[in-house]
Fold this protein.
Amino acid sequence: MAIPDTPSTTSRQPVLSLRGISKNFGAVSALTDVDLDINAGEIVALVGDNGAGKSTLVKILAGAHMPSSGSITFDGQPVTLANPAAALKLGIATVFQDLALCENLDVVANIFLGRELHPLRLDEVSMEVRAWTLLNELSARIPSVREPVASLSGGQRQTVAIARSLLMEPRVILLDEPTAALGVAQTAEVLNLIERVRDRGLGVVMISHNMEDVRAVADRIVVLRLGRNNGIFLPGASNQELVTAITGADDNAVSRRGKRTAEAKAEGERP
Amino acid sequence: MTTASDRNPGALLDRSDERLKDRSGAKGAIKGFLDRVRSGDLGSLPVVVGLVLICTIFQTLNPVFLSPNNLVNLLFDCSTVGIISLGIVCVLMVGEIDLSVGSVSGLSSALLGVLWVQWGWPVALAIVTAMAVGFVTGCVYAFLLNRLGMPSFVSTLSGLLAFLGLQLYILGPTGSINLPYDSPLVNFGQLLVMPHWVSYTLAVAPGVLALVLGYRKAQRRQAAGLSSRSFGGLLLQAVAITLALELVAYYLNLSRGVPWMFALFVGLVVAMNYALKRTQWGRSMTAVGGNREAARRAGINVRLIYTSAFALCATLAATGGLLSAARLATASQQAGTGDVNLNAIAAAVIGGTSLFGGRGSAYSALLGIIVIQSIASGLTLLDLSSSLRYMITGCVLAIAVIVDSLARRSRVSHGRA
């Protein structure tokens, strides 16, 4: 089920494209020769075991780390992401796992934090209208934008964090574990939200440990293993294929369970 | 899934969610207020309750307490420590503390005495120099915090001692310098009150402003499809504010009148309130006090915000010191010592500014200092010794902090952190 490294959509030019990215921390190479393409209107899931290099890759995209070698092109132009501000200016927004919201401020203040309209005489009406427009476009369920963020649920906070990153009209948005620590309903809410972000024409990169979530929304699943590309899968790929690619072992709990199910099925079919 | 279907069609943009309780009208406003109080968002309620209690107790013990004469004196006394307390609000907003405001105010009054009276500098230059020294002090605290990671608790505690020493050093062996009685500065601190017509005119201003600005805001919100306050409600509020202020002005005018020094203090409070609530700087202060890391990631210059908070606090402390020197017509070794420090901090906390950062308002300095000075004035009228005064003020501060931390716990459990 693995598809070739070049995505099926070669006719479209990817918004963001990484070629041969390596990153060394001293003697340890966290990433070796990694390629990644992100198209507009596409959700790319980045999966891998702990230490596979997912976070390092996202930090390179967010401008927090510089790659040791390799090239990054944005809209076909080679770029260097020297710092987070440079990445943000290009249109790459990042929502980190700890959402970094101010719980004592309301939703509007959090969405506009650091980017307030009219610094010397805050334009609360325009900011509130813009916040509502943004949240309604995402069909987000926030009862009131004038309540402090402390009163919101985990899913709603994720929504606020994503809405905040959309304020700058980015082209690509990076989500680090957006559904970690969320309940069933909230996870569904956030996954819906991620699809709507994609439907706005953004390229979405989503790191996740949860294969169910990944398969629910991803258009492509990129597997990293020990800092290298280890296959690109379509969401239809079986759990076993993915786990094999992630762990690199054919013989593991998931594959054994798969085998057992297959045997049981075969026995059941026997007359 | 949420779609247009479960949003009431035609509803206001911010009132369309079905889960939102209706809080419009007078009944809704009262219910909303009770909800807020129950969840620990007390605002200025404890102050109002405290003031009523204090007034009742002292008035029954000594009928002079609420006399216009005593209240005018009270307002003179409020202004000096109140301005120091306004600075404390700034540092508390970012979740820090300045324990040296008393010493800084004492140092600045000593500087005023030495530069103006002993060295013969022009008074304006002496004032500016003393305030500049305060400003630099604040910048040094911020530098110690930003660059050397020294907690403000420790740096300002050492500042408390160091600046007290400096104050004693520059005052020299005589220990106190009398300021000229007939100078405008001393007049300002002891005598100058508004002419009656000015006080009545100024008392109208807040109500009119609240009405005009509130109405313009309501119109803008209406045009933008947001919920807005009714004109009737705004008018009622404006009339209530105006009546209350006119009554206060009338009562004070029965005696000497409204002190200009108190007007300066209130003016600073209003300006600070605007800066904290309606500017990007104020929003950044609140954000840094609430979640420093989030503020940093939002691109806020956290170090600059800390510097502005400490510098403002120490400058205001110096200003308060100058005014208290004017009030006492002397720059002495006792200036800024004793309970000045704690009164300033207690006033901010009693008024509702949280010790834990990220919550507060400039008005808490005004309300808090009125409570503190009322207690001090009441106890003085009862001829109690300073030993008892200290103990009672200490207890009031303890109660205020307990109310603050209990309210905070309740806010956390009600999702209002």
About this structure: Chain B touches chain A through 40 residues (CB under 8 Å).
